[in-house]
UniProtKB/TrEMBL annotation, chain A:
Complex formation: Heterotetramer of 2 MoaD subunits and 2 MoaE subunits. Also stable as homodimer. The enzyme changes between these two forms during catalysis.
Keywords carried by this UniProt record: Molybdenum cofactor biosynthesis, Transferase
InterPro entries: MoaE_sf, Mopterin_biosynth_MoaE
Species annotation: Colwellia psychrerythraea (Vibrio psychroerythus)
Similarity section: Belongs to the MoaE family.
Protein name per Swiss-Prot or TrEMBL: Molybdopterin synthase catalytic subunit
Upper classification of the organism: Bacteria, Pseudomonadati, Pseudomonadota, Gammaproteobacteria, Alteromonadales
From TrEMBL, chain B:
Lineage: Bacteria, Pseudomonadati, Pseudomonadota, Gammaproteobacteria, Alteromonadales
Protein name per UniProt: Molybdopterin synthase sulfur carrier subunit
Domain of life: Bacteria
Organism of this sequence: Colwellia psychrerythraea (Vibrio psychroerythus)
GO molecular function, one term: nucleotide binding
This protein's UniProt keywords: Nucleotide-binding
Amino acid sequence: MSKVITTKKRTSKPAILDEYTNQEISIQAEDFSLADEVTLLEKDNLTDGAVVTFTGRVRNNNNGNNVTSLTLEHYPGMTEKSLAKIINQAKKQWQIGRVKVIHRIGELHIGDQIVFVGVTSKHRQDAFSANEFIMDYLKVKAPFWKKEQIVDAGKTSENWLDAKSSDTDKADLWS
Amino acid sequence: MIKIVFFAALREQLDCAELSLSADKAKTVNDIKLLLSDKSAQWQQIFSNASLLAAVNHDMVAGDHLVKSGDEVAFFPPVTGG
């Protein structure tokens, strides 16, 4: 048997953490303002006539369960890298201008915003398609995990969400 | 040494966030899984789950991906963000 050293706590942050973090990607605990993000996508941007935004929020139900809150975990460094790859794929596939992806982490409550994807383009079709593509790929490729806190007959419990095959099927439609 | 990290439900099941392995023990990601499975019956059962994903240096990889000293290898369940 091999020698395995086990530590229960993470000892250090990956050095690569900031390498892929740029203006297009933000992984944050704080909330964001849709209006501010649209302003940034549009500011001094006179070539793009289309701005498409998507906002995902925490809903109060999942698989029939009464959800009270969610906890979002991610893999610092890899999450940013995978989102950067997805954005680059979108830029190759469609003629788009600016892109912004925000994903929140930590504890979130019913109605809270979780995710934002904003894309600008000269014309609407590329902006619509690229936005949907980024969201579909984020769902199945970016390392985020949701744990939900649920209340059933007054009892609180929590469980990690299972990945949905419908999300994989949807993402596969792009390939 | 190879740094191994675990996330989400996997981390909780193992009660372990990260560990180190000597690089001369493993050539591939699958080798690492086998070494980790040797730790206990519980770890063996957890690492036999075919849906577990693996990444090396922040890129998703298949089980036959080669590993070397200095690599960061991650194991985690299918992702559920968005």
